[in-house]
């Protein structure tokens, strides 16, 4: 049956329920586009024959191939769209700099889309809250205190806080830091929020 | 979680971009061709090599059946899968809770709703059975999802169809959120689940 390759793309994404981004399956997409080209050309031939020689018995077959073309189109569109939803989520979960391993999973166009999205978000955030703008990717949970206790989960090197003090983030060290400086590092799994 | 996939459609409508609906429409149905399909014989192993003759019984995925079916013309006929026929409908009527809907589906409700596109004379009965089955089973699903905390739920979800499993997961998510709040941990900042899962996967990749 046609369109099996296209559904494979969907299954690949559907397996990753947590929003992980698998590598861009360029190979599979190419095969689907090739199948579409073949179906389209066969239909062009049959449509001409049906018109010029009145062979209306070809119509069910033409319709059959047309259904397959629509199906392939749907699968590819949904595949690309779902990946964009995952990539968008990456900006909110990881921040504006993505780890290289994830970047390798994106195709050139998706990287470009991510950059544009970052810019749009930044422009929007700058337009809020008067002169300074407002970072809406912070304070995802309502804050209970200005400073929080954090433990370092892995070596992260030196870290400067607002008054100029430099903290060394070494694995297992514990610090009492301003919440707004730590939020992103906690999301990235570098620091752990310690509740007393 | 910031990743919000397109949700499946409700009832007889599919959502074009929903991964769930695409997989649902991949389910195969028993069909019969009511006309010849010239040149497509290679798809059907038993047929005369060049064409699919009229009257051929073959399985077609839902998306194809929906695309080809026409109410006013004889293109294909779609048979009702067993689970929507009278025999099984009586079982559902007696006690919907005993049926393993994962085995009989796994898209019992989704596919049942889609079957209504094919103008079967039994459409009314099918629709009613699917609805009553849902009503009959919902309470148990909701109950177990709200009471299974921090335990292995595989036994509970084993016999649920996909829609029920999604509802179960939602219930669990609400329960876990409430428990965190009760323990005063709702304000705790956490690592992104994307990051933790990614790290776990990297470790397994390295070990492989």
Automatic annotation (TrEMBL), chain A:
Q: What is its main location?
A: nucleus
Database matches in InterPro entries: GINS_A, GINS_bundle-like_dom_sf, GINS_Psf1, PSF1_C
Annotated GINS subunit domain ranges read: 41-128
Q: Which GO terms describe its cellular component?
A: GINS complex
Q: Where in the cell is it found?
A: Chromosome; Nucleus
Statement: the UniProt record of this protein carries the keyword Coiled coil: no
Name a biological process GO annotation: DNA strand elongation involved in mitotic DNA replication
The alphabetized UniProt keywords are: Chromosome, DNA replication, Nucleus
Tell me the Gene3D superfamilies matching this sequence: 1.20.58.1030
Which residues belong to any copy of the DNA replication complex GINS protein PSF1 C-terminal domain? 144-195
Q: Which Pfam families match?
A: PSF1_C, Sld5
- To which protein family does this belong? Belongs to the GINS1/PSF1 family.
Oligomeric form and interacting partners: Component of the GINS complex.
Please explain the role this protein plays, according to its UniProt record: Required for correct functioning of the GINS complex, a complex that plays an essential role in the initiation of DNA replication, and progression of DNA replication forks. GINS complex seems to bind preferentially to single-stranded DNA. Required for correct functioning of the GINS complex, a complex that plays an essential role in the initiation of DNA replication, and progression of DNA replication forks. GINS complex is a core component of CDC45-MCM-GINS (CMG) helicase, the molecular machine that unwinds template DNA during replication, and around which the replisome is built.
Family annotation (PANTHER family): DNA REPLICATION COMPLEX GINS PROTEIN PSF1, PARTNER OF SLD5
Q: What is this protein called?
A: DNA replication complex GINS protein PSF1
TrEMBL record, chain B:
Q: Where in the cell is it found?
A: Nucleus
Give the SUPFAM superfamilies listed for this entry: GINS helical bundle-like, PriA/YqbF domain
- Chief localisation class: nucleus
The DNA replication complex GINS protein PSF3 N-terminal domain extends over 18-69
BP terms from Gene Ontology: mitotic DNA replication initiation
Query: What are the GINS subunit domain coordinates in residue numbering?
Result: 92-181
Q: InterPro entries under this entry? A: GINS_A, GINS_bundle-like_dom_sf, GINS_Psf3, GINS_Psf3_sf, PSF3_N
State if ATP-binding is listed as a keyword.
Answer: no
Q: Which UniProt keywords apply?
A: DNA replication, Nucleus
Q: Please provide, in alphabetical order, the Gene Ontology terms of the cellular component aspect for this entry.
A: GINS complex
Record carries keyword Nucleus:
yes
PANTHER family to which the protein is assigned, alphabetical: DNA REPLICATION COMPLEX GINS PROTEIN PSF3 (PTHR22768)
Q: Which family does it belong to?
A: Belongs to the GINS3/PSF3 family.
Cited function: Required for correct functioning of the GINS complex, a complex that plays an essential role in the initiation of DNA replication, and progression of DNA replication forks. GINS complex is a core component of CDC45-MCM-GINS (CMG) helicase, the molecular machine that unwinds template DNA during replication, and around which the replisome is built.
| Assembly and interaction partners | Component of the GINS complex.
Which protein, by its recorded name, is this? DNA replication complex GINS protein PSF3
Organism classification, top ranks?
Eukaryota, Metazoa, Chordata, Craniata, Vertebrata
């Amino acid at each position: 049956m046609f369109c099996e390759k296209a559904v494979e793309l969907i299954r690949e994404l559907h397996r990753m329920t947590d929003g992980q981004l698998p590598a861009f399956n360029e190979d599979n997409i190419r095969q689907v586009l090739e199948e579409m080209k073949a179906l389209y050309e066969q239909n062009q031939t049959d449509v001409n024959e049906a018109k010029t020689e009145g062979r209306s018995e070809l119509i069910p077959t033409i319709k059959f191939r047309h259904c397959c073309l629509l199906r392939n189109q749907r699968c590819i569109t949904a595949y690309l769209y779902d990946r964009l939803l995952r990539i968008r989520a990456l900006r909110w979960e990881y921040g504006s700099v993505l780890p290289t391993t994830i970047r390798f999973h994106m195709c050139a166009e998706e990287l470009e889309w991510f950059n544009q999205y970052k810019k749009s978000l930044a422009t929007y955030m700058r337009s809020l809250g008067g002169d300074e703008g407002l970072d809406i990717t912070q304070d995802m949970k309502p804050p209970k205190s200005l400073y929080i206790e954090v433990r370092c989960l892995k070596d992260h090197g030196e870290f400067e806080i607002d008054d100029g003090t430099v903290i060394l983030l070494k694995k297992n060290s514990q610090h009492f830091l301003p919440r707004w400086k730590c939020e992103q590092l906690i999301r990235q799994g570098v620091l752990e929020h310690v509740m007393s | 979680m910031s990743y919000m996939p397109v949700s499946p459609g409700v009832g007889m409508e599919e959502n074009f971009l929903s991964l769930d609906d695409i997989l649902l429409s991949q389910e195969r149905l028993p069909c019969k061709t009511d006309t010849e399909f010239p040149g497509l014989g290679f798809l059907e192993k038993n047929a005369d090599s060049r064409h699919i003759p009229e009257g051929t019984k073959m399985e077609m995925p839902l998306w194809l059946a929906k695309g080809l079916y026409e109410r006013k013309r004889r293109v294909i006929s779609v048979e009702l899968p067993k689970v929507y026929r009278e025999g099984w409908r009586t079982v559902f009527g007696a006690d919907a809770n005993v049926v393993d809907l994962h085995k009989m589906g796994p898209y019992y409700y989704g596919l049942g709703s889609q079957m209504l596109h094919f103008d079967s004379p039994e459409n009314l009965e099918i629709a009613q059975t699917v609805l009553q089955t849902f009503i009959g089973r919902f309470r148990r699903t909701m109950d177990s999802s709200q009471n299974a905390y921090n335990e292995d739920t595989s036994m509970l979800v084993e016999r649920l169809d996909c829609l029920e499993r999604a509802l179960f997961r939602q219930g669990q998510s609400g329960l876990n959120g409430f428990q965190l709040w009760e323990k005063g941990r709702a304000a705790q900042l956490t690592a992104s689940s994307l990051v933790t899962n990614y790290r776990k996967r990297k470790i397994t990749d390295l070990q492989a």
